[in-house]
Structure formats: structure tokens, C-alpha cells
Design a protein that fits this description.
The protein has about 160 residues and is an alpha+beta fold. The chain has a single domain, classed as Thiol Ester Dehydrase, Chain A, CATH 3.10.129.10. The chain has five helices and six strands. Strands 1, 2, 3, 4, 5 and 6 form a six-stranded antiparallel beta sheet that branches. The protein starts with 16 loop residues before the first strand and ends with a helix. About 25% of the residues are buried.
């Protein structure tokens, strides 16, 4: 079965599912993300402080988890033109050092925009190796239409 990311917009169907490879979150990932963003909250950076917290240890930043999720999805540059929107993100469960995450996704809707592009809305679940949903998000991508479909669409709108 083909991944939806190997298809042009006009070959996609709502309801198609995909699962990405996994990625293990390391202490170095968390330290580098904290340094890069300036988010030095002790829940992420202080082992002693976080040991006394609700989670009992350091956890990954929510935005680090989302950033890695985007990197795990195989966005083919020949098809996916841009990430347009990430919305309705809900963080459900912490991601700990050593957890491996992957994205379990489903295409929700398809909307042609013009002769060359369409919008693909997908629901992503970011899941740990234990099967726990760490986060959910609605993601909208600008997708390239197939050259044949774009040609046909442009012929329909061209004045005679």
C-alpha cells in the first residue's frame, strides 16, 4: 500500500491513514531545545526540581514533541509545498527521556484551492512506545496537484 505522501493531491482520499517511524527522545534533545528556545522551565531542565513535580522526572517540552512529530512525517517536497496550519493541539501525556514517539495520522479532508494546489487537513496523534497518546493536533498542508489535473482545471477556467 502506498503512503499518502507518495501521492499527488488528486489521488488522495479522505480517511487514508499513515504511521511514521519512531524517534527516541534523549536528554541531549531536551537540553538543546531548552537552549535553542530559551525555555528553561525546571520541569525540563532540573532533575532535582522535577523529581518533586507531578511527573516525577524531567519531561520533553510540548513544542519539542510537536517539532519532532513534524520531522517524522515524510513530507515529500515534490508534493507537499508548505505546512499551513497546526491547530487544536492538546498535550495528553508527558514524554519522558527515553520515550520513543511516532505519528499515527489520518487525512480528514481535501479542498482544491486552485489549478496547482489543494489543502489537506489531517489529524495527528503522537504516540509513545507504550501506546499512550502524548499529543493530538490538526495539521493543514498545502499539497501540489498532479500536472494533468492542474492542466484540466486550468482549461476549465480559461475563457474561450
Amino acid at each position: 500500500m502506498n503512503s499518502p505522501f507518495s501521492l499527488d493531491f488528486d489521488a488522495l482520499e479522505g480517511g487514508e491513514r499513515f504511521v511514521t517511524r519512531g524517534r527516541t527522545i534523549t536528554e541531549a534533545d531536551i537540553v538543546q531545545f531548552a537552549t535553542l528556545t530559551g525555555d528553561m522551565h525546571p520541569q525540563h531542565t532540573d532533575a532535582a526540581w522535577s523529581a518533586e513535580s507531578r511527573f516525577g522526572e524531567r519531561i520533553a517540552h510540548g513544542m519539542l514533541v510537536m517539532s519532532y512529530a513534524i520531522g517524522l512525517v515524510p513530507l515529500d517536497p515534490e508534493r507537499v509545498v508548505a505546512l499551513r496550519r497546526v491547530s487544536d493541539v492538546v498535550f495528553k501525556h508527558p514524554v519522558y527521556i527515553g520515550d520513543t514517539i511516532h505519528v499515527d495520522g489520518r487525512i480528514e479532508s481535501l479542498k482544491p484551492v486552485d489549478a496547482s494546489h489543494g489543502l489537506v487537513e489531517a489529524l495527528w496523534k503522537i504516540v509513545t512506545q507504550r501506546g499512550r497518546t502524548a499529543a493530538r493536533a490538526r495539521v493543514e498542508l498545502v499539497w501540489r496537484r498532479s500536472p494533468v489535473a492542474a492542466e484540466l482545471a486550468s482549461e476549465l477556467v480559461m475563457p474561450l
